[in-house]
Amino acid sequence: MPVKAPITQDVMTLPRKLPEGPQNLVGLTRDAMRAALIASGTPEKQAKMRVGQIWQWIYQWGVRDFDAMTNLSKAFRADLAENFVIEVPEVVTKQVSTDGTRKYLVRIAGGHEVEVVYIPEEDRGTLCVSSQVGCTLTCSFCHTGTQKLVRNLTAAEIIGQVMIARDDLGEWPQTGTRTYEARMLSNIVLMGMGEPLYNFENVRDAMKIAMDPEGIQLSRRRITLSTSGVVPEIARTAEEIGCQLAVSFHATTDEVRNMLVPINKRWNIEKLLDALREYPKVSNSERITFEYVMLDGVNDSDADAHRLVKLIEGIPAKINLIPFNEWPGAPYKRSSNNRIRAFSEIVYKAGYASPVRKPRGEDIMAACGQLKSETERARKSKRAIEAEAGVSQG
Ligand code: SAH
Ligand code: SF4
Fold first, then answer.
1. Taking the mean position of all CA atoms in its chain, how far away is CA 196?
2. pLDDT tens digit string along 265-284?
3. pLDDT tens for residues 57-114?
4. Which of 72, 75, 95, 337 is 20 to 30 A distant from 148 in Cα terms?
5. Cα(191) to centroid of ligand 1, in Å?
6. CA pair distance 287, 242, nearest whole angstrom
7. In what helix (H) or strand (E) does residue 313 lie, and over which residues does it extend?
8. Domain CATH number, residue 33
9. What's the DSSP call for residue 288?
10. What is the tally of structural domains in the chain?
C-alpha cells in the first residue's frame, strides 16, 4: 500500500532566489545593481555610471541582450554575459477579448503561473499586475482567494509583467530616443492576483523601477495599489512608494466586512479608516479610491450607501462601484443595474464621484477578481482525483 503523503506541502517555503548561476539584473534597485556589478569585478568608481547605462538599455529600450549594449566595451559586455542575465517571465498564452482586453498567462520560476491583464481605453491603457501567486487572504467573493497555492512574486517577476506587456504591445522607444507619443501602457494597477501589501518590498522595488525617470518613466500618479486593508503597511506605502491608493472596502459594518474581507477581523473598519485619513497627506496624493463590489442583497442597500458616505466623511475619496464578476461556484450574485444606479446616486449626491466599473474582458475571464491560474485549477483537480482514488502524491 502506498503511504499517503501530505497533499499541500506548498511553495511558501520556496527559496526566493535561484540557487546558483548568473544573477538576474531585472528587478534590482539601482543600489543593488551597483553592488552586484562591484561584486562581479566592476571598479567601484565606474559602477554608478555603468548602472546608468545598463539601466537605460533594459528599461528605456527594452534590450535583453548584452551584446546590443553598444556604448559598453566588448570586454565589459562579455563580463556581464558571464555573470548576469536579463530575464523576464515567460508568456505561456495570450488571450484577446472582443473588447480588446488582453490576458497573459505568465510562467515564473518553479513552474507557477500568474495572470496579467491589459485593458485599453480611449485615453489610456492600464496593466493589471499580479503581486502573488494566489492570495493568502480568503475574501469570499474573490476567485483568487480560493487558490491554495501561494507564493510572493519577486521584484523581477512584478516589473517583468510590465516588460512583457510592452514587448507584446511593441512599445519600447527606438534605441537612442526617449519620447513616447501616446502611451499604450500608461497606467499600472496592482489589482491582479495577490495582496500587494503582503509582499511589500518586492512591490515597492518593482514600482520604483516603473517610476524611474530613466526607464519606464510612469508617474506615481499613474500607479494605483489596491489593498484589502493591511493597515500597518498603509503608512509605509505612502512614504516609500507614494503611489495612488485603492482600498477594497466592500461593506459598511464590521459584521458584513468580516464575512466578505476577513482581514477585517484583524484590522476593522475604524482602524482602516484611521490609516486612510493619513494617506493623502503623507503621500501627497489627491484622493483614495474606495472599491465597493456590488453583491445582491449583501451590501447594496440604500442604508449601506448612506452609511458609507458617513464613514468616509472628511477623506478625499472616489467610490468605485464594481458589479460583482461571477466565477464558477461563486456564492454571490451581482446586484441589478437599477440597484447599482440607486446606490451610486446616493453616493454622488453626498459629493463623491461614484463611477461604476465596466467589466472588461469577461469573455476571457479577465475581469476583476476572476483571475486564478489554469495550472492551479488543473493541479487541484488532479489532486482531488488522486485523493479520491487513494493514490500517493509522490
Ligand atoms: N488583493 C488586493 C488587490 C487585488 S483585487 C485587494 O483585494 O484589494 C482587485 C479588486 O477586485 C479588489 O477590490 C477586489 O476586492 C475586487 N474583486 C475581487 N473579486 C471580485 C469579483 N469577483 N468581482 C468584482 N470585484 C472583485
Ligand atoms: Fe486576496 Fe484581494 Fe482576492 Fe481578497 S480580494 S482574496 S485580498 S486578491
1. 6
2. 999 999 999 999 998 777 77
3. 999 999 999 999 999 999 999 999 999 999 999 999 999 999 999 999 999 998 898 9
4. 95
5. 7
6. 12
7. none
8. 1.10.150.530
9. E
10. 2
